[in-house]
Amino acid sequence: MKKQWKIGLIIIIAILTVILFRKDWAHDSSMNGITYKESSNPLITRYHTLEVKDDIQTAVKDVFEKKSYPDGYETTVSPETHQMVLVIRPYSQAFFEGMKEDLKQSMEKVLTSKLPHYEAVVRPLYNETNHTAISKQQQAAVMKAIKEMEKKDELSISYGMTFSAAYGHIEKMTLMFSKNQKEIRDVSEINQYHKTFIDLLVQKDGKIDDFPINFNQGTKRDWEMKVIPSVTQGLKSKSNFPVQSVTLTENAPIIVNLSLAASQPKVKEKAEQIEKLVTEFFADKDVKKSFPGPQEVHVLDKDGKRIE
C-alpha cells in the first residue's frame, strides 16, 4: 500500500511538471522570444508582429546568403489576414522557384514558435513595375512639399528617407524643422508642420501611402521601426476611427489628429477610445521594457482643438 502511494505521488509530480513546462513554453520560444497571443488592442498586435518581423528578416537573409540575393525584397505584416508576406524581385522564374520553399520554411520556423496563428507567404514581383522610377517620383513629391513649406513658413527642413527595395515606395522618413538655425522641439509646433507636410504631400502625389515619420535625431531603432508604426498604423487600422495623422516624439505627449470636428456625433467617445488604446499600448510589458511611454495623449479635432 505504501509502495502504491509513492508511485501515485511520483505520477502526480510528473503530471504537474509537464503542465508547468508547457505553460512556460507558451512564453519562451526556441528563438529567445515569446509566443505572442492575439491582443484586442491593434497597437499591441502591431508591435508584437513587428518584433517577429525582425526574426523573419534574419531567417530569410540566411537563405539568401546560401542561395543568392534577389534584385530586392520586402517583408510586410498583415494582422488583418494573419499573414507574414515576403515579396521578392527574382531575376527569373527559375530563380524564384529555386528558393521559394526554403524561404517559406525559414519563415514558418519562426512563426511556429512566435505567431503560430500566422501564415507564411512568399510572392514574386517581376519587373512589371520600375521601383527605381517610383522612388524618384515619391522623392520629387517630398522635395516639392518641403520647398513649399520652407518658403511659406520660413523654415529650414532636414529630412531622410528609406525606400522599399521591392516596390520602391517610401518606407519611413525622418523630418526635423528649424527656424533661425534652431531646431523646433515643441511637439505642438512639430504637429502643425507635420499636418501641413502630409496635406502638401497628398496634393503633390496622391498615390503615396502612409509611412511612419520620425521627428527625433538619434532616435533608438525600436522607437523608429516599431513604436511609431505600431501606434500610427494600429490606430488607422480601426476603420471607425477618423484618424488623419499621428505625431510622436520622445518624452512628449502623443498627438492624434482627427478629421472630424469635436462637435460631431460620437467624436468625444472615439477620442476616449483612442486615448485608452494608446495608454494600454505603452503599459504593455514588452513595449515598456524600452519605452515607458509619454505622460499624456492629446486627441485633436480637425481644427486643432483638444477633445476632452
What do you see in this structure?
The chain is α/β, with parallel strands linked by helices and 308 residues long. It has three domains: 1-30; 42-124, Alpha-Beta Plaits; 131-300, no CATH class. It has nine helices and ten strands. The strands form three sheets. Strands 4, 5, 6 and 7 form a four-stranded mixed beta sheet that branches. It has a three-stranded mixed beta sheet with strand order 1-2-3, with helices on one face. The longest helix has 25 residues, at 42-66. The radius of gyration is 23 Å and the shape is globular.
N-C termini distance: 71 Å
Question: Beta-strand percentage?
Answer: 15-25%
| Helix share, percent | 40-55%
Multimerization status = single chain
- How many structural domains can be distinguished in the coordinates? 3
Structural class: alpha/beta
- Give the rounded overall mean pLDDT: 83
Which geometry do the CA atoms define? globular
Order of helices and strands: HHEEHHEHEEEHEHEEHHE
Number of strands: 10
Rg, Å, rounded: 23 Å
Low-confidence stretches: 1-32
Q: How many distinct helices?
A: 9
Question: Can you summarize this structure?
Answer:
The chain is an alpha/beta fold. Helix content is 48%, strand content 18%.
